[in-house]
Amino acid sequence: MESIKVGMLGLGTVGGGVLKIMQEHQEKISAITGRRLEITKIAVRHVAAHPEVAELGIELTDDVNAVLNDPDIQIVVEVMGGVDPTKDYIIQALKNGKHVVTANKDLIAQRGSELVKIAQANHSDLFYEASVAGGIPILRTIVNSFAADQIEDVKGIVNGTTNYILTQMVAKGMTYEAALKSAQELGFAESDPTNDVKGIDAAYKMIILTQFAYGTNVKLSDLSVEGIDKIDAVDIQQAKSMGYTVKLVGESAEINDHLAVSVAPVLVPNDHPLATIQNENNAVLVKGAAVGTTMFYGPGAGKMPTANSVVSDIIATTKNIVLGTSGNTFNGYRQKAALAKPSEIFSSYYIAVKMPDIPGQLLKLTQILTEAQTSVSQVVQTETDGKEARVVAITHNISLAQLHTIIDQIDQEASIELKASYKVLEAQK
Ligand SMILES: NC(=O)C1=CN([C@@H]2O[C@H](COP(=O)(O)OP(=O)(O)OC[C@H]3O[C@@H](n4cnc5c(N)ncnc54)[C@H](OP(=O)(O)O)[C@@H]3O)[C@@H](O)[C@H]2O)C=CC1
Ligand SMILES: N[C@@H](CC=O)C(=O)O
């Protein structure tokens, strides 16, 4: 059987999983592709840290050019992460006629369309299924199974680390810091977890999902992004007592031909499917005009689930090599859509404030809400020490513009302090 040589950049959490699957499932992969896939070279930073590789007859190097310029290597698997210098390495691989598989959402979200164009010009594949929702085959599903439908909304939990942290805080009463440390030890978090906890990692995934769902390229500054790093445990408990679970939710919706893409902590009703997603698992709800709402669920981070997606891309690329074709996953096919205005985006909101526990104070809050033409479904005083009270209001559906007015008015009222404002997800019908 003919062989196809594969080179890798990176051998960390994901790379280690790719190597394991490629070794253990070699026979099955050969049967499916008709080619023997052979990892011949792996570039890492610290060669001495990977003594196990020499025993496998694989060359380990700290020189990425040894992989990128090897004329025998046909597929380069990039699992080292980061944008620079990784982007240049991928460009070099593509210009050298190699096919590229990557798990790098930071890079694809920021420079994906440029890379796809280079891949197309060089008749190479550039696949990145693992970049969104780890082990869930969501990109290929959108490309293949939603091709005939018109997608109206994509929303879900697309960051494993933050969902793991929130689950541990709610279920085990763990502190935020302890839960983050555990997510890092389990290999879910990025090498620098800032992007995870600040919602940026989820935002990158929503940028890629938006491109796949609507054919439109958006950039990070087009999104409204908030992470979980500022959530107060009091609000998590308060939400719980009101029948909600706090989740970091990404949403990309088409509203009157305008796009609204966001990532933020959201109160999810306990009977909504997203409320049941635990630990590092992810779930993506895709609403199509014809099919209605569908849900895709599975592990969103971690060694083996992510590696499974990477290897499925390696197999897809190999099949293309055998067929003599190339099939770039995607590129934006529409002009940039306008972004939805705050007056077009509607939701119910959870608003938490602190105020002196004196008669007449609550009236000031209700006046602010009334002036913004906002009615509420619930107002509760959640705690008081006799001097200061915490009050939570859940609004009916209002526009984001109305929410901005309410927040501005609260900021101007010296005796009321805004503690939190979160979107409340509609019950799933
Ligand atoms: N972890 C996860 O659950 C998921 C990760 N991803 C993405 O996969 C990619 C890899 O993540 P992960 O495996 O967790 O990362 P790790 O930090 O575990 O591994 C990174 C690897 O890349 C190597 N590396 C880093 N910089 C260089 C460089 N300049 N030259 C050569 N080698 C380098 C490191 O070498 P050394 O070993 O010597 O330090 C290491 O082997 C990232 O893009 C990440 O966002 C996507 C989905 C899920
Ligand atoms: N850090 C990411 C890894 C997968 O993309 C996450 O936690 O989801």
Secondary structure blueprint with pairings:
Elements: E1 3-9, H1 13-24, H2 26-33, E2 36-43, E3 59-61, H3 64-68, E4 73-78, H4 86-95, E5 99-102, H5 105-121, E6 126-127, H6 138-145, E7 151-157, H7 160-171, H8 176-185, H9 194-197, H10 200-214, E8 224-225, H11 233-241, E9 244-255, E10 258-269, E11 281-288, E12 292-299, H12 303-323, E13 346-356, H13 361-371, E14 376-384, E15 388-395, E16 398-399, H14 400-412, E17 417-424
Parallel strand pairs: 1-2, 1-4, 2-3, 4-5, 5-6, 8-10, 10-17
Antiparallel strand pairs: 7-9, 7-11, 9-10, 11-12, 13-15, 13-16, 13-17, 14-15
The protein binds NADPH dihydro-nicotinamide-adenine-dinucleotide phosphate and the ligand N[C@@H](CC=O)C(=O)O.
Residues 134, 159-161, 188-190, 196, 201, 300-301 line the site of ligand LTNE7NMQ.
CATH superfamily of the largest domain: Dihydrodipicolinate Reductase, domain 2
Structural class: alpha/beta
- What's the mean pLDDT score? 95
Rg, nearest Å: 24 Å
Count of β-strands: 17
Q: How many helix segments?
A: 14
Strand content: 25-35%
Measured distance between first and last alpha carbons: 53 Å
Estimate the global geometry from the Cα principal axes.
elongated
Helical content (DSSP H or I, runs of 4+):
25-40%
Each distinct ligand: NADPH dihydro-nicotinamide-adenine-dinucleotide phosphate, the ligand N[C@@H](CC=O)C(=O)O
Q: Label the CATH architecture of the largest domain.
A: 2-Layer Sandwich
**CATH class descriptor name of the largest domain:** Alpha Beta
Largest sheet: 11 strands, mixed
The low-pLDDT segments are none
| Count of spatially separate domains | 3
CATH-derived topology of the largest domain: Dihydrodipicolinate Reductase, domain 2
